[in-house]
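Just curious: can you write a single protein's sequence together with how it folds?
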Amino acid sequence: VDMKKINEIYRYKTEEYSMDATNKFNIYPEQIPHWLMDWIPGEGGFMIGNLQPGHMDFRFFTLGNLWSVIASLGTPRQNEAILNLFEAKWDDLVGDMPLKICYPVSDFVLLQPLVISQWRILAYTLVAGKLGLGSFHGLPCAW
C-alpha cells in the first residue's frame, strides 16, 4: 500500500464479487486508519496483511516486508517503496531500539526486550533487502 493505492481504495465500490471486480479484497475505505495517511511517505509503501475477507491489517510488519523484498514477492517498484519507507520513517521503525517488529505496536502484544539474536535477524534482513536491490544508500549506521 502506498499513497496512490490508498487514494484508489477510497474510490472503490464495496461488495463487488466477480472476476472483474476492482475491489478484489472487498476493502472498506472506513477501515483505513487515520494515522496511515499522515505516516506513509510519498515515495514509500509496504505490504499489508489480510486478516479475513474485507479486513486488512495496515500495521507495518518488519520481517514480512523485508522478506518480501529479499524473495522478490513484489515488483521492483514495490520493493524499492518498502526500503524508501525505512529511510523516511527510520525514527519510527528503529528509534532507540535496534529494529521494531511492528509499527504501530499492537495492544495485545506483550512488550518485552528483544533477545540480541532476534533484533540481529531483523537487522540482517534489512541489509539483505538493500543488497538484493543493489542499493545500500540511505541506511543510517545506527548499529
The first strand starts at residue 49 and ends at 52. Helices lie at 3-10, 34-39, 62-70, 76-88, 90-93, 116-132. The CA atoms of residues 35 and 104 lie 9 Å apart. Residues 3-57 form one domain.
